[in-house]
Specification:
lipid-binding, six-stranded mixed beta sheet, globular, 27% strand, 11 helices, alpha/beta, four-stranded parallel beta sheet
Length: 280
C-alpha cells in the first residue's frame, strides 16, 4: 500500500503536466451558466472567458459536496494509508468545510490544509507537499513544513475591472475607491488570513503590472525567491509581460504559466493577471 495521497481542488489552477508529474488528485468545483453546469476543467478556459464576456448573466459557482469528497477519499484509501488534502482559502469558499465534513468518517487518515490563498498560490503549496511526499517525509513533518511554507508564499494579482469581484460577493477588503468608474486597476494581495486586500492601485494595466513587480520587491524582505508561478484570465500578452518582468527582477524562471480556471475566473473576470512567489 502506498503511503500518502495528495488531494487538492481545481481552483489551484495546476496544469495537466504538473498534476501528472506530481500524482495530484484534483476534485473539481463547478460553474453554471443558466441551466448548464460544468465541472471545472470540462469547459476550456478559452470557451469560458468567451461565454463570460458574451452572456449578460453572471455564472454561478459551487464547491464539491461532502459526499463527493467522501467518495474520492474512500477510493484513494483503498490504495494509500493517508491523505493530505490542500484547499482554497476557507475565507473565500466553502470547499474546505465540505472536506472537513467528509473527513469525520475517516478521522486520522485524512489531514486537511487550509491554504489561505487562491489559484497558483495554493498551487505552490500543493507542489511543496508533493515534493515532500516524493522525498519520503512523514505526514507530521510535511504538515509542519507547509505551515512554514505558507508564511513565505505571496499571491498578488491585478484586475481589469472590479465588476466580477463585486457581483460575485468576493470583494473582501478590496474597497475604498470606485475602481470601475475611474478605470483604476487595483493590485490585490491575498492576506495571511486568506482574504483579499487592496495593496495598491494604478491607472492602466501596464502600470498595475509594474506595480505588482514593485510590490514583490517590497515584500521580499531579505528573503530569497525560489519559485515563481504566473496566471492570467484571457490576457496572454499581459501575462507574458508580468512573467518576463518578474523573471528579470528576480532572476528566476517561471515554474508554471497558465490561464486562471473558470471558477476563479467567475469572480475575477477577463483581464486578470497575477503571480505567486515562494520565498525561503
Amino acid at each position: 500500500m502506498k503511503r500518502i495521497a495528495l488531494v487538492t481542488d481545481s481552483t489551484a489552477d495546476l496544469t495537466e503536466e504538473v498534476k501528472k508529474d506530481f500524482d495530484i488528485h484534483v476534485i473539481p468545483l463547478k460553474v453554471r451558466f443558466g441551466v448548464q453546469e460544468y465541472s471545472d476543467g470540462e469547459l476550456t478556459s478559452e470557451d469560458f472567458y468567451r461565454r463570460l464576456m458574451e452572456d449578460k448573466i453572471l455564472p454561478k459557482t459551487s464547491q464539491p459536496t461532502p459526499e463527493e469528497f467522501s467518495c474520492l477519499y474512500s477510493k484513494l484509501l483503498e490504495e494509500y494509508q493517508e491523505i493530505i488534502s490542500v484547499h482554497i482559502s476557507s475565507a473565500l469558499s466553502g470547499t474546505f468545510n465540505a472536506a472537513y465534513l467528509a473527513k469525520e468518517k475517516f478521522k486520522e487518515r485524512i489531514h486537511l490544509v487550509d491554504s489561505k490563498t487562491i489559484s497558483l498560490g495554493a498551487g505552490l503549496m500543493v507542489m511543496e507537499v508533493a515534493r515532500n511526499i516524493k522525498e519520503g517525509q512523514d505526514t507530521e513533518w510535511i504538515l509542519e513544513n507547509i505551515k512554514k511554507a505558507r508564511k513565505n508564499i505571496e499571491t498578488l494579482f491585478t484586475l481589469n475591472t472590479l465588476e466580477y469581484l463585486q457581483k460575485g460577493g468576493r470583494i473582501g477588503r478590496v474597497q475604498g475607491f470606485m475602481g470601475s468608474l475611474l478605470n483604476i486597476k487595483p493590485i490585490i494581495r491575498v492576506g495571511d488570513d486568506g482574504v483579499y486586500q487592496t495593496y495598491g492601485k494604478a491607472h492602466s494595466q501596464k502600470k498595475a503590472l509594474d506595480s505588482v513587480v514593485q510590490a514583490y520587491q517590497d515584500l521580499t524582505k531579505g528573503r530569497k525567491p525560489i519559485r515563481l508561478v504566473v496566471a492570467h484570465g484571457a490576457a496572454h500578452k499581459a501575462g507574458t509581460y508580468l512573467k518576463e518582468a518578474l523573471e528579470y527582477a528576480f532572476q528566476l524562471q517561471t515554474t508554471v504559466f497558465t490561464q486562471v480556471g473558470p471558477v476563479i475566473g467567475v469572480h475575477t473576470g477577463p483581464g486578470t493577471v497575477g503571480a505567486a512567489i515562494q520565498f525561503e
